[in-house]
Amino acid sequence: MKNIKRQKNTLVKSSLFSIVIAVAIVVIGINLCILVGLVCVIASPRFEVFSTNTFIVMGITTFINFLVLILLLLLRRVYETLVNKKIVVPLREIERHIIRFAHDNYDEPVIHSEDDEIGDLFKAVERVRIQLIEYRDKENNAAELKKIYFSGLMHDIATPVTRINGCASMIADGMVTDEQSIKRFASTILRSTEDISIMLKSIAAIEKYNESGMNIDLQPIDIAQALEVFVSDLKTSINNDEVSVMFVNKCKLPAVSMIDLKSCKRAVANLINNSIKYKKTDCNCEITVSIEDNDDGKILFAVADNGVGVEPGAESKIFDIFYRGDAARRNTSEGSGLGLFIAKQILTLNNIDVWAENNGNGLTVFALLERSDKKPVNWFKLEK
After folding, report:
1. Which domain holds residue 306?
2. Which residue from 380, 368, 352, 372 is spatially nearest to 253, judged by alpha carbons?
3. Which of 211, 245, 264 is the last residue before a domain boundary?
4. What is the Cα–Cα distance from 107 to 174, expressed in whole angstroms?
5. What phi and psi, each to the nearest 5 degrees, are found at residue 108?
6. Which residues make Cβ contacts (< 8 Å) with residue 41, sequence separation at least 6?
7. Are 50 and 42 a contacting pair, CB within 8 Å?
8. Average of per-residue pLDDT across 43-72
9. pLDDT attached to residue 51
10. Are 259 and 219 in contact (CB under 8 A)?
11. For position 5, what pLDDT does the model report?
């Protein structure tokens, strides 16, 4: 960073200082007029006697002029010193901190003892420093988690690649000749390529989440109506006899809340997809989406399933980026650890609290929405 060429310290404008200067100028002007008048009297031809009083008046007037000038210079010096101490030095300190920020050095706190306008500026810079630290730590943690995730993902990709290579080699070498075995090996190759495809989609999802911003447009939405239509459409798109999704409205009061409909639909889809991914293998997957009146007047939203659930104590961890439970780690193709993370980020941006609990027969994800008394918008027009 280039050194900034400093200007000379200037006197800060002050109404009190301006008044003092004006009074001093008036005093000096009056005294000069008196001196000029005395000189004119002395120089007059009619002036024959040098009066002692005249010289005394001239001396006193001259002394007052010099005294006023000296006091004015001293006042200017004192004021400049005060300005330098109260403003210039603190501003240079702030400049020093900003230069440190430019070099990613945020360790030294920004502190100012005075509770004034400059102190407010120091507090603002300190808030920026704290935010930069949080952003740096978040970036470092995300980068570390991303590195760990990609390392695990590359290791997991090696498994289906090995299966594909083994099956293809046995077929190519003529070790498998009967039609039934060839179909079995081809089926193994197909499943392995699907596993790899899912893993690659996980990588694409990570990059898409990192690069894309999310615009939130809060509108009063009839939650019950929107969920009923959304779940109905979802049933059609799932097309899986082993998965059933139902919506239950237990609200007695109007379920209207200020949300961004499009992003919230994405979040709900992620919650339902998570339940489908981690369903039990020995029974059909049953998912219940419900809303009800909470005791504090808010709307309690829930997605409950009868899946494998999560290990005790991990209910809050499932929303962390790239987190997957032990069962999921044994089969990477089942999930990337991004669905619940993205769902929580979306709901948080919509001012919605979200948490999860084991329900004894699976997992339930809860969300608490603020109830609005505004008239709901015609939400299906927002989709067009």
Report:
1. 219-382
2. 372
3. 211
4. 66
5. -80, 125
6. 47, 54
7. yes
8. 67
9. 60
10. yes
11. 44
Asked if the model's pLDDT at residue 110 lies above 90, the reply is: no
In the 8-state DSSP scheme, what is residue 241? T
Question: Do 313 and 286 reside in the same domain of the chain?
Answer: yes
CA distance 153 to 199: 7
**Is the domain of 228 the same as that of 301?**
yes
Same domain for 164 and 259, yes or no, is no
* Amino acid making up residue 19: I
The four Cα atoms 309, 312, 318, 323 give a dihedral, to 10 degrees, of: -100
The string of DSSP codes covering 94-106 is HHHHHHHHHTT--
CATH code for the domain of 171 = 1.10.287.130
Residue 278 domain flag: yes
User: Which of 211, 232, 260 finishes a domain?
Assistant: 211
CB 273, CB 334: distance < 8 Å: no
The whole-model pTM stands at: 0.51
Helix/strand/coil for 4: coil
| Mean pLDDT value of segment 292-307 | 93
Nearest CA among 300, 321, 334, 61 for reference residue 201 = 334
Report how far residue 80's alpha carbon sits from residue 88's, in angstroms, rounded to the nearest whole number. Answer: 10
Burial of 70 (C-beta count, 10 Å sphere; 0-12/13-18/19+): exposed
Judge whether 368 and 298 are in contact, CB under 8 Å.
Answer: yes
Most confident of 48-62, 108-122, 249-263, 307-321: 249-263
Contact in structure between 321 and 142 (CB atoms under 8 Å): yes
Query: What CA–CA distance (Å, rounded) separates 353 from 300?
Result: 10
- The DSSP letter of residue 175 is S
Does a structural domain hold residue 361?
Answer: yes
Q: How many residues would you count in the chain?
A: 384
- SS3 (DSSP) at 111: coil
Q: How many domains does the chain have?
A: 3
Identify which of 246, 243, 343, 346 has the alpha carbon closest to the alpha carbon of residue 290.
246
* Residue at 123 is within a domain: no
Residue that is written with structure tokens 């009056």 in the block: 30
